[in-house]
Amino acid sequence: MADKKTFYITTAIPYANGAPHIGHAYERIATDAFARFQRLDGKDVLFVTGMDEHGLKMQQTAAREGLTPLQLADRTAAQFEAMGEKLNAKADDIVRTTQPRHKETVREVWRRMAAKGDIYLSKYSGWYSVRDEAYYDEGELTQNAEGKKFAPTGTPVEWVEEESYFFKLSAYAEKLLAYYEAHPDFVTPEKYLNEIVAFVKRGLKDLSISRTTFDWGIKVPDDDRHVMYVWVDALTNYFTATDFLQGGPRAKFWPADAHVIGKDITRFHAIFWPAFLMSADLPLPKQIVVHGFLFNRGEKMSKSVGNVIDPNALADHYGVDALRYFFLREVPFGQDGNYSHEAIVQRINADLANDLGNLAQRSLSMIAKNCGGKVPAPGPRDEADSTLLARAYASVDFARNAMRDYLPHQALAEIWGVVGDANRYFAAQEPWKLGKTDPARRDAVLYVTAEILRVVALLCQAFIPEAAGKFLDLLGVAVDQRTLAHATPDHALVAGQNLPAPAPIFPRYVEAEEAK
Ligand code: ME8
């Protein structure tokens, strides 16, 4: 048998100096859905996340909390691991930047860039923001009444002078532009690529890539006084997970298919990272997949506003699948999105409980009651049956294309389009009235409805895995018959097969006051 096609996807690696927030949960859920979808579609998938554990900010936060940086990193890493499990979005591997395997990989990549002649020692002075771990140009700064200067991100900056190693980023501007030109999908959605191209066209300066003012980082090879700039360290995590340099069993996964990241870190991923890899003579990732930011009722989350929401609490309150569905359906991928209690409840009650849950409950209960709890006979097909079935089977390719293009909201809109058609079909056919007049036709309608539910549930596994699994259980679909290759007429439900007793899967969300 031919080897399966590989698919390697990553999330950004969150800073280990704070607990998971809703943006992290969103990114993890989306990446998990992409990974699950490709796995369902028969690919050999590697899904990796990690923790960004070095840098001055880590050192400072740990000191404030009376911890060592590693203790802080351990605590945060455990929180992120728990979040991944809770959200049903566990990765295959977690690269922590303090791990020996990572340090070795980063040092090797550094050595390769140095061997290329792209690293030199010089002096750096400039306006540095500790919070952003970035230098800013004088012209980008703003000043308050007291004369204090701030970065464009609003964080305070201070004047820093230090000896530093530099990477010859300036030498890569033309090469990067040629690369973007040849690979117009390198950054998606396109608007983010356009921003990057415009930025690179203005010219690139060499990049300071080491620090001597703190020591919580990976030491520069052959110069212990310097630790590496966190972004050289952090970006390389994607590469660490593949054992590419060691030629290990995961080497086949490099280059990555997709790095899924938020819009604030596109420059690091679409400029620095490919430049480092070009310099080290290593293959470039295929795509940088950018998502927008999530806002709480239009407001940016911040500790001072007090609207930082623990994603675990949301998952407990609404249910994991409901939360996953909400994020992936509500927010057009790549754009910013909002979440609010009302919007989440609306999606739960309209889409999950009503459209899908009710259809399944009504049709499966009728099958239990009228068809002896077995898949009914399909009987001869009329036009309404064929039209609905054709749309459902065609939705598989539609979803495939949408997920290939990292548009989960479009995939879900199409799947729910099928659910909507199925509801209209069910209402028009009125199978509950056919028992006396035409039981064979009633059975045919119930068969078609159940088969539609099978295709819908197969597709839903990537998005709402637990609920989709339960639907497939109720439809008697064997565990080894649940890939997308099974979402075809050849694998349709077989009449006469026993079905378990139906049970509701998506209850309506009832407000606490109403429940009283
Ligand atoms: O940036 N909505 O870590 P991080 C959506 N360590 N996504 C959000 C968000 C929001 N409100 N806030 C943050 C870092 N994110 C670096 C990454 S990768 C080599 C190093 C996203 O913890 C953000 O865009 O600040 C990023 O993709 C991820 O969460 C981690 O952010």
From TrEMBL:
Residues 8-363 form the Methionyl/Leucyl tRNA synthetase domain. It comes from Rhodoblastus sphagnicola. This is Methionine--tRNA ligase. Belongs to the class-I aminoacyl-tRNA synthetase family. MetG type 2B subfamily. One of its GO terms (molecular function) is methionine-tRNA ligase activity. Gene3D superfamilies: 2.170.220.10, HUPs (3.40.50.620), Isoleucyl-tRNA Synthetase, Domain 1 (1.10.730.10). Residues 375-513 form the Methionyl-tRNA synthetase anticodon-binding domain. A motif ('KMSKS' region) lies at residues 300-304. Its EC number is 6.1.1.10. Its main location: cytoplasm. It is found in: Cytoplasm. It holds the Pfam family tRNA-synt_1g.
